[in-house]
Amino acid sequence: MASMTINSVNFGTAKGVKFEYVGLKVLQNVTCEKPHSVKFAPRTLTVNAAKAHSDGPVKKMGKSDEECEAAVVAGIVPEAPPVPPKPSAPAGTPLVTPLPLSKRPRRNRRSPRAAFQETSISPANLVYPLFIHEGEEDTPIGAMPGCYRLGWRHGLVEEVGKARDVGVNSIVLFPKVPDALKTSTGDEAYNNNGLVPRTIRLLKDKYPDLVIYTDVALDPYSSDGHDGIVREDGVIMNDETVHQLCKQAVSQARAGADVVSPSDMMDGRIGAIRAALDAEGFQHVSIMSYTAKYASSFYGPFREALDSNPRFGDKKTYQMNPANYREALIETHEDEAEGADILLVKPGLPYLDIIRLLRDNSSLPVAAYQVSGEYSMIKAGGVLKMIDEERVMMESLMCLRRAGADIILTYFALQAARCMCGEKR
Question: Would you tell me which of 86, 241, 267, 386 could form a disulfide with 381, CB atoms 3.0–4.6 Å apart?
Answer without folding.
Answer: 386
